[in-house]
Design a protein that fits this description.
8 strands, alpha/beta, five-stranded parallel sheet, three-stranded antiparallel sheet, globular, 408 residues
């Protein structure tokens, strides 16, 4: 039996200190395996732009600030920020105003590969052009200033009324921590034999659900500071929280079986496997609605769920090997950092080789069945407290608070 080593028990530590998408630009990196997220985000641009039309416009003399929460380290975040800023520029110009200066904050956990992200950013147009027209005329350049903001979006990251638009894509389904009862062998919620919620018993599933709703409540409290917000999040159609649908097929089938292979082959113990759980939860509409109503600060304007697409983007669908590799790389790009920390690099490599082998054998099934769902929600911030005296430089009012929850 291979030595276990002194590897980290990922599930029992603070995920904020470890969780990130796979950095760099290699084959298993997030930057190289987020094409599906890009396609699904593009399919929802009309909803994003529709919501942007309701964003309050301040004086052009006041800089316009955009934040992407959970930005990760690929091109998708840059593309969406560009879409938001260009749309807002058109709105100012349609009213006959000179557009303001724009700033974009890219925010994620401190473990995020910000170096790769910032290397992907185009240079600032004309090194800080004096006019927005000069910025827009510079092809291959950006028309906004940039800063990175490390920290968890489950906490307050910015002062009140300092942000015009919050955006977050494919991040809110990540839990802030694993529920303690799921990892406690003495608990009836102990997720024995599994590394994900999919197919788990009722108590385990409810523990995941409770953690998600606790996290979402914290997220909403931290965003109750004005500005508009657009979010992208995994979702599901089933009322059963243990039926995670697309996420269940991604993490609850071949990925699960690969862990079981390592146990059967004596490479890891069953306890080592059981101490690892993917901290992801795809909510239902009801899960989301319950949190918003309990919070009381927001009005639900729109709440829908519809079928999205597959996370697998392949050039040759009839090539089983390519499909298997795509599934393995998709899993690795989002969970590889946690797996590496839990069992070490060598065993992690063995695990994902087994994922790829199993997925290759079921390529047709994956192409037919691996589909995610999108939850679309529109929320309005409800201002209940009497506003105090406005200070110089403050925004004059709160913009409508609009959220779009989408599953890639």
């Amino acid at each position: 039996m291979a030595p276990m080593g002194d590897n980290v028990v990922v599930s029992n530590m603070n995920l904020e200190k470890l969780l990130s998408m796979k950095g760099g630009k290699g084959e298993g990196s997030y930057a190289s395996n987020s094409q599906a997220q890009a396609l699904h985000a593009r399919s929802m641009l009309h909803l994003l732009e529709e919501a942007l039309d309701s964003v309050h416009l301040n004086s052009p003399e006041v800089p316009f600030v955009v934040v992407d929460l959970g930005c990760s380290c690929g091109n998708n975040t840059i593309y969406i920020v560009d879409v938001i800023i260009k749309h807002m520029i058109k709105r100012y110009e349609s009213l006959g105003y000179e557009p303001p200066k724009f700033s974009a904050f890219f925010s994620d956990l401190p473990t995020n590969d910000f170096n790769t992200l910032f290397q992907l950013l185009p240079p600032l147009a004309n090194n800080g052009a004096s006019s927005m027209e000069e910025c827009l005329a510079s092809n291959g350049h950006r028309s906004y200033f940039v800063a990175g903001v490390p920290g968890s979006f489950y906490r307050l990251l910015f002062p009140a009324r300092s942000i015009d638009v919050f955006h977050s894509a494919f991040s809110l389904h990540w839990l802030s921590q694993m529920p303690e009862t799921v990892l406690d062998r003495r608990s009836t919620a102990y997720n024995e034999g599994r590394v994900f919620i999919h197919g788990a018993n009722e108590r385990t599933a409810n523990a995941y659900k409770k953690q998600f709703q606790t996290d979402l409540a914290e997220f909403l409290r931290a965003r109750s500071i004005g500005g508009s917000m657009f979010l992208v999040c995994l979702g599901r159609t089933s009322m059963d929280p243990s039926d995670q649908r697309g996420a269940g097929l991604l993490f609850g089938s071949h990925f699960q079986d690969a862990w079981d292979d390592l146990v059967r082959e004596g490479l890891i113990s069953s306890e080592k496997r059981d101490n690892f759980n993917i901290p992801v939860y795809a909510p239902s509409l009801q899960d989301f609605k319950e949190v918003v109503e309990a919070d009381g600060s927001f009005t639900i304007n729109k709440l829908e769920v519809f079928k999205g697409g597959s996370p697998l983007v392949v050039s040759r669908p009839d090539d089983a090997t390519e499909v298997g590799r795509a599934l393995a790389n998709s899993c690795r790009s989002v969970s590889g950092v946690l797996v590496d920390a839990h069992i070490g690099d060598k065993l992690s490599e063995e695990l994902f080789l087994r994922v790829e082998k199993r997925a290759t054998s079921h390529a047709n099934e994956l192409l037919e069945q691996l589909q995610f769902f999108q939850i679309v929600a529109s929320l309005s911030f409800t201002l209940k407290k009497k506003r105090g005296i406005q200070k110089r430089g403050e925004k004059k009012d709160f913009s409508p608070f609009v959220c779009y929850f989408l599953l890639h």
